[in-house]
Specification:
Length: 126
Amino acid sequence: MNDLAKALLALDAKFWNGDEAFFHEHVDTSCLVAFSTMSGVMSNGDIAATAGDGSRWRNVEVRETGFVCPTGDTAIVTYEATAVRDSGEPYKAIVSSGYVQRGDGWKLIYHSHLPIEDPQQDAALD
């Protein structure tokens, strides 16, 4: 993994527990999001408002699974994430984030979560 991929993966991992100020600082003016519960273009302020106090997740672990840098000022990182929701529920997902480099650093312009179903959990329900 190259240095830029490492830096963006580390930045992305901080979004899991970042507070509103962190989101304001690291999300571009607008950002395209794709979640199972919401999708579309959101403003920096609207996205920051979703962060609350930043205590949404515990035991967050990320493992990079892909990285492309199509131009010198754009990059996309994809990773597998495991975490525990504040409610105690385990969560696994494939996450993709796109970034653009601005004068004051890399800013999030795209973010997507694709939940991974847990086959063991599904078997326990049968």
